[in-house]
Amino acid sequence: MGYYQGTTPGQSWDPRSVLQFDNPQVGYQTCFGTAITYGRRCRRQVSIGPFIPAKLQAQEPLKAAKSSWLNALALDGLCWQHVHQVDDVIARWRHALHKFAETQSAGTKSSSKGHGPKPSTAGSRPTPKTEQRHPDVDDIMEQIRRLREELEKLLSEQKSSSSYSSGPKPSAQQPQQQDHAEEQRRREESEEKAREARKREDSERAERARAKRQKEKEREEREWSDACARYEDRWSNIEAGGGGLASSQIPWPTKSGKGTTVDERAVREFFRRMPSLLLSDEPGEERFRVISRETKRWHPDKLQVGLGGKSSTVNTKTTLMWFRSWFSCFGKMQR
């Protein structure tokens, strides 16, 4: 990993393993902080260079536990969201280093007992003396840790007591701020829900209006299609020689098919809606063909012949007046 690899017993530990650089839940290096909401270690990846771990590895575990490099490593390995947990991380690491030192010391003692006591020689430094210092140091460090915990507990109680006894104003402000924040949150949630409800209502209203317009459009198209079909059927009857029509049977070119609704606007709209014009690939030529056909149909002289020259059911004078009026309208359309 690029760390310094020493040869003395104090340098035979691996910071990555002892301090758990890798998150065991995911299998790679992540932030050392704790995601309190999820009750697990943070899974945000962080990058730690080899310099600080090498500095720690160069020291004995118990010295590394008191080293300022441990604080630097914690700051380097915490993400922005959990940097406030630096003291908790350091305390956890110190405990791990103490445990590691105890295990290492116990292993050394066991090895020494297996070989029996070594005689002391002049001029040589007895190794058991060095090994016997570790339990004492461990006890001292444990006592320091406990004293620090007690001190922090006392300071916390003192701070709580002083803030409680300093008067009603400071103690009342915090609940008021919390109440205000909670009220603000509820108000924002209520406004958000209201916006969402209005948005849904607007969307549903627009959808209903669109469906209504589509239904109205389809109904109108059916009515125009029926009117055009009725018009063509009546003309087919006249052109086949079925004269002597009643007034109600005259094929007026309007949506209602009644002579009372004949005017230039109604006639223009009727022929604009004819399926042959709407569906034609060449609307210009089809329009010319329709105008030519209708001009012949509605010529007064030919119309009398088409109706069979009978006037028993139709007032000839009144009918011809309507025909001339229509012919005038259609002539304007043709121009």
UniProtKB/TrEMBL annotation:
Its main location: nucleus. One of its GO terms (cellular component) is nucleus. Keywords: ANK repeat, Nucleus, Phosphoprotein, Repeat. Residues 102-138, 154-223, 242-261 are annotated as: Disordered. GO terms for biological process: negative regulation of canonical NF-kappaB signal transduction. Residues 107-121, 157-178 have a biased composition (Low complexity). It comes from the Eukaryota. Residues 128-138, 179-223 have a biased composition (Basic and acidic residues). It is found in: Nucleus. This is Uncharacterized protein.
